[in-house]
Structure formats: structure tokens, C-alpha cells
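Input sequence (119 aa), recorded before submission:
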Amino acid sequence: MPRCVGTKPDGSPCERIVGASQTYCYAHDPANADKRRRDAARAGRSTPNAELREVKGLLKKLTQQILSGELQTSSGAIVNQLVNTRLRVIELERKWKEIEQLEGRLEAVEVVLKTRGTG
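Predicted structure, C-alpha cell format:
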């Protein structure tokens, strides 16, 4: 299977598989540099997603149920632990997306710097 001819920031070859007619993966294709830059900037300005709104709603409902006596404190503590676990997963997903975007931006900068160095 053909692989991307791009290089990672550490200088090692990219390991992503590309189509037969492609030379670069999306992250290394110079033709996508502007789109990657725009996407990364847009993601940085994005508002909290639906999952976070849902978690806030769950916490609000949980608090009301405990305060009203509708839910026992012990059950509420377990639900709260599960909600906190979910929040940690959401945060990890956000960090991974941010890392991927930063890698794309860094690779685009490296391409520009390499081009300037040879020109």
C-alpha cells in the first residue's frame, strides 16, 4: 500500500496510507495547508459542544434530585463519579483534536520553511 512521502516533525517518515494517485496524506499535502490553518483557527474559537451542555444538564438535574430527596446521596455520588469520568473523556478527546490540529499547523510551517530554505 502506498504511504505518504511527507515527514513527521521528528524527521521520521509519515506512516499514513494514501490512495494510489496520491503522494501526500491530508496532513502533509501542501495543497491543504490553507484549509488546515483555517480549520485549526476555527476550532480554537469554537464554543462548547453539545456533550458539555448535556453534562451540565445532568449535573443540574442530579443536584435537584438530591436536594429534593428524590435521589439518595449514595446513588447521586455514583452518578456524579460517572459524569466526572465522562468529562475526563471529553477533555481527552478535545486535547487529541487540538494536538492533531497543531501537528497539521506545524507541518505546514515546516513545509514553508523548507521551501524558503531551498528557494
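Checked by second reader. Residues 30-118 form one domain.
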